Amino acid sequence: MGIREETVWEALKQVRDPEIGIDLVNLGLVYEVLVTEENGKSNIHVKMTLTSPACPSGPQMVQDVKDVLKQLGEEVGEVTVEVVLSPPWTPDRMSEEAREELGFY
Fold first, then answer.
1. How far apart are CA 54 and CA 60, in angstroms?
2. How far is CA 6 from CA 23, 60, 90, in A?
3. 24 with 92: CB under 8 angstroms?
4. pLDDT-based confidence at 105, cuts 50/70/90?
5. Which of 43, 61, 48, 49 lies closest to 5 in space, CA to CA?
6. Under 8 Å CB-to-CB from 103, ≥6 apart: which residues?
């Protein structure tokens, strides 16, 4: 059956922006998750952005995403992370939970 997209989204909630302390999903940094099956493995492609183009934590967060997704099991094949800057991230992309945690009302 392979890895389900919902499983990937849940796993990504383990990755936190080290400067803000909120997970990437609730911050709205993850734009898209695509899971494709190939040779009995689930290849995972994540399209995400950063809070700013000059975010110093970007490389660390990309590596954390790869590490967390590889831990989903032996059925995980290739994991790719595409960092895009368009559309740019804005606080409007945050979940209600993240807004409350950061004091945005």
1. 13
2. 16, 23, 24
3. no
4. low
5. 43
6. none
Residues in the chain: 105
At residue 63, what is the residue type? Q
Q: pLDDT (tens digit, 9 = 90+) per residue, 44-97?
A: 999 999 999 898 999 999 999 999 999 999 999 999 999 999 999 998 999 999
Domain ranges, ordered by start, for the chain: 5-92
Q: In what order do the strands lie in the sheet with 76-83?
A: 30-38, 41-48, 76-83
Q: What kind of fold does domain 5-92 have according to CATH?
A: GMP Synthetase; Chain A, domain 3 (3.30.300)
Task: Please list, in sequence order, all residues whose beta carbon lies within 8 angstroms of the beta carbon of residue 39, skipping any fewer than 6 positions away.
Answer: 77
Residue 88 makes CB contacts below 8 A (sequence gap 6+) with: 49
